[in-house]
Amino acid sequence: QLQLVESGGGLVQPGESLRLSCAASGRTLDGRTLDYYAVAWFRQAPGKERERVSCISRGGSSPNYADFVKGRFTLSRDNAKATVYLQMNSLKPEDTAVYYCARGRYTYCSGYRANDYDSWGQGTQVTVSS
After folding, report:
1. DSSP 118
2. What order do you get walking across the sheet with 10-12 strand by strand?
3. Which residues on adjacent β-strands are paired with residue 54?
4. Could you read off the pLDDT of 70-113 as tens digits, one per residue?
């Protein structure tokens, strides 16, 4: 079973940075490891729906970003370490949420809804407050 574990969340002040990690272990029922799949980060603030923040394909080129994080967040992956990283700079109070990583169903990013992704992690809390 492929499992994902997020880490790196915390409490920071506006303008500061955090780097989230999503580490994978195990395999899917098809016998594949995380490096085969696209990976996305979602976030969910209290009372709001889960929204996709960014997604990176199997090859790691040209990640795509939601408009509200473009220019501030950078998504990357190290397939040798089975880990995906979300570098978050210039954090704002509205970035406060639980952040989740999730495995896509294909090698490329497809779908913006939570239902389009599988193998979710447990989430890591990010709080941006002065």
Report:
1. B
2. 10-12, 124-128, 97-103, 39-44, 51-56, 64-65
3. 41, 65
4. 999 999 999 999 999 999 999 999 999 999 999 999 999 999 99
Question: How far from each other are the two terminal CA atoms of the chain, in whole angstroms?
Answer: 40
CA distance 42 to 114: 8
Reduced to 3 states (helix: H, G, I; strand: E, B; else coil), residue 7 is strand
For 111, which DSSP code?
-
57: which 2 tokens?
């394909």
Q: Report in angstroms the alpha-carbon separations of 84 from 46, 48, 59, 93.
A: 25, 25, 12, 24
Give how far Cα 109 sits from Cα of 8, 26, 54, 55, 75, Å: 23, 21, 9, 6, 13
> Cα–Cα distance between 90 and 95 in angstroms, integer?
10
* Type of residue at 60: G
CA 69 to chain CA centroid, nearest Å: 12
